[in-house]
Amino acid sequence: MEVHFIINPYAGNGQGVKRWHQFERQLTIPYQIHWTKYEGHSQLLAKEIAGRATKENPVCLIAIGGDGTIHEVLNGAVHFGNVYLGAISAGSGNDFARGYQAFETGKQLQEFVNRVNSTSHDCGVVRQGGNTKYFINNFGVGFDALVANIANKSTLKRSLNKWKLGKLSYPYYVIHALFTYKPFKLKIVQAGKEKQYQNVWFVTASNQPYFGGGMKLSPKSDTSDGQLELTVVSNLSKWKLLFLFGTVFLGKHTLLKEVEQFAATDAQLIFEEPVMAHADGETQKLAAGQNRIEITVQKKAWNLAK
Which domain covers residue 181, as residue numbers? Predict the structure, then answer.
């Protein structure tokens, strides 16, 4: 088995480099390392390496970085067989490690190589305007995406990352964005039925429970059950939204009448105007005129090295 490390040196304000050096001292197995140089580079590296995997010579890809790095590696490797994905957490939120499992020591990784113990998991698929993207944790549209976008660009997050407290930037920017955000109208088409929502704060499709640095947004999500959980938050005041984010760490927000959550294997999200979206925390502004998003689940799409 070939072992490849894809390392994001910018993750967690340099935590990617520190975590790699911690592991490097513990490893006695052969491996190759690849340093990312720009946004999207992890995906290209993963695709190139995964394309060489065979049954006789499988590949283990270890992402060292945050959830965004793991997101890119998944998107590069998801179509290839004989590939195992693993992670070493070095970001600010690290929700992947909460919902799945990340390597903590070099010894754990070497044990995997010796016995090849893995589990298969689903991933979400997003199609919009001719583009296809895969997500491993969650995909969201609206307020949560706006907050993620602000937090990703903030100097506060970089400063907190120096003290391994980057996840605290998310609650801060929830308050920051609260007074400028405008809720939107949404139509969801699912299982042949349409439902209209007014004053929507956000809609999120979850493949695992955790979100935003430890918030338990979707408590019932299971990464290998062949479905996603959609969460729609609408028709509540700004102050009650703050209360919601206070309860979401315990998964109690689902008790609020303004929160609707249901399981689905596919759904269409239809908007009247462009909104901000994110996949595993990586954000983008949906283009004008492309107001329809199709979300599906791809069952047992990838293998987790553990």
Answer: 126-301
